């Protein structure tokens, strides 16, 4: 078991009217990882969420911009820690799984551990349509970004400081999970998945998710991310569509012109030419944006590398070969008495004698002064 006592671990719990569950969530998190700081972000609640969270020992903060994405954006900017945990305040995730997730992240080391939901009840804990939609989004995102993911909409995750401080956080609402997943895929960050317990909300607690509204919002975000992260694919498809339409319209005109020497449908010819022009324009835009994407990704990668990893790894000692005759060793150059200038000067005078002795030669004599 990796020692986490020296690490600053912050749990971020976004909440909107979660007075029924928030106290239990905070208590369970503190019991699972003693010493962890739990931050509850109250997102315009009208009930006793803040009061009960503070009573359970959480640090309560307010975020007036509505939406989970706005909460995550604010928390990632405000909180300074070594490890970050995100978990919903509805008590649907099993807090007891958190030590295993942290252990997995540190043992990798990884920058992101995704909690993959496993039903712990006889009946499905997913709302109607959510499980099928989740599988569809997993496959679509995996195909578009060439990386597999099992539960991209899970809200239970553990991050390294490197991940959090290099994440731009553009999303406003529940599509934030999609943005987190695509950020991981785009930068090819080391990640892992961990099976977690998942249960339905307790009686009296209402979900804030909208099956169709959030679904279309996530689809829109995926399309936007494809346009930004894979511009050659996005604009390549547009190029192909415009080019095909142009060719379909132009073929009858070319055939008729070859037979009669006339172009009777002149507006159709203009439209075909305009569509082909748009095809070339879309292709050019895709190439230009791909160059910008590469520069942006390199900048994000350099920002990521400028941050310290979650675990400091000690490199294995490198064996040092014996010096060849006539060469200097590190002790010859540095010497054992760097703190004393006089001793350092005396030591430097001895270097030619020591070098000549290694080579089996007599040391060169300096010029003498007649008395």
What labels would you give this structure?
seven-stranded mixed beta sheet, 7 strands, 12 helices, alpha/beta, 371 residues, single chain
Care to describe what's here?
- Strand 2, helix 2 and strand 3 (59-62) form a beta-alpha-beta unit.
- The chain starts with 8 loop residues before the first strand and ends in a 12-residue tail after the last helix.
- The model is unreliable at 313-338 (pLDDT under 50).
- It has a seven-stranded mixed beta sheet with strand order 3-2-1-4-6-5-7, with helices on both faces.
- It has helices spanning 22-32, 49-55, 68-78, 98-107, 130-145, 161-165, 176-186, 211-229, 231-260, 266-305, 330-334, 341-359, and strands at 9-15, 37-42, 59-62, 83-86, 112-119, 157-160, 191-198.
- Helix 7 (176-186) runs parallel beside helix 8 and helix 9 (231-260) runs antiparallel to helix 10.
- It has 371 residues and is of the alpha/beta class.
* SSE arrangement, N to C: EHEHEHEHEHEHHEHHHHH
Provide the helix percentage: 40-55%
In percent, how much strand structure appears in the residues?
Answer: 5-15%
Give me the number of helical elements.
12
pLDDT average, as an integer? Answer: 81
Task: Extract low-pLDDT stretches.
Answer: 313-338
Rg to the nearest angstrom?
A: 32 Å
Major pleated sheet: 7 strands, mixed
From the N-terminal CA to the C-terminal CA, the straight-line distance is: 76 Å
């Amino acid at each position: 078991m990796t020692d986490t006592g020296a690490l600053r671990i912050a749990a971020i719990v976004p909440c909107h009217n979660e007075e029924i569950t928030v106290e239990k969530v905070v208590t369970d998190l503190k019991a699972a990882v003693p010493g962890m700081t739990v931050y509850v972000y109250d997102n315009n609640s009208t009930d006793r969420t803040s009061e009960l969270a503070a009573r359970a020992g959480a640090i309560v903060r307010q975020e007036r911009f509505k939406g989970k994405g706005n909460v995550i954006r604010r928390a990632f900017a405000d909180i300074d820690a070594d490890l970050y945990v995100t978990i919903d305040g509805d008590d649907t995730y099993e807090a007891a799984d958190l030590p295993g997730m942290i252990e997995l992240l540190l043992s990798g080391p990884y920058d992101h551990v995704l909690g993959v939901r496993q039903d712990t009840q006889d009946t499905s804990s997913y709302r109607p349509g959510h499980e099928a939609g989740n599988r569809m989004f997993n496959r679509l995102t995996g195909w578009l970004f060439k990386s597999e993911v099992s539960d991209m909409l899970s809200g239970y995750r553990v991050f390294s400081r490197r991940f959090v401080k290099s994440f731009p956080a553009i999303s406003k609402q529940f599509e934030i999970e999609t943005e987190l997943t695509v950020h991981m895929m785009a930068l090819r960050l080391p990640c892992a998945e961990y099976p977690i317990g998942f249960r339905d909300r307790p009686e009296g607690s209402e979900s804030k998710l909208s099956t169709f509204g959030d679904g279309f919002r996530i689809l829109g975000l995926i399309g936007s991310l494809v346009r930004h992260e894979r511009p050659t694919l996005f604009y390549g498809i547009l190029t192909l569509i415009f080019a095909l339409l142009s060719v379909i319209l132009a073929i009858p005109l070319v055939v008729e012109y070859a037979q009669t020497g006339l172009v009777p449908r002149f507006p159709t010819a203009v439209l075909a030419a305009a569509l082909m022009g748009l095809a070339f324009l879309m292709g050019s835009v895709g190439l230009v944006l791909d160059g910008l994407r590469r520069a942006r990704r390199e900048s994000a990668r350099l920002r990521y590398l400028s941050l310290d990893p979650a675990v400091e790894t000690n490199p294995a000692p490198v064996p040092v070969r014996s010096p060849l005759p006539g060469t200097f060793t590190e002790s010859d150059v540095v010497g054992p008495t760097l703190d004393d200038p006089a001793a350092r000067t005396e030591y430097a005078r001895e270097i030619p004698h020591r070098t000549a002795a290694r080579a089996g030669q007599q040391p060169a004599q300096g010029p003498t002064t007649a008395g």
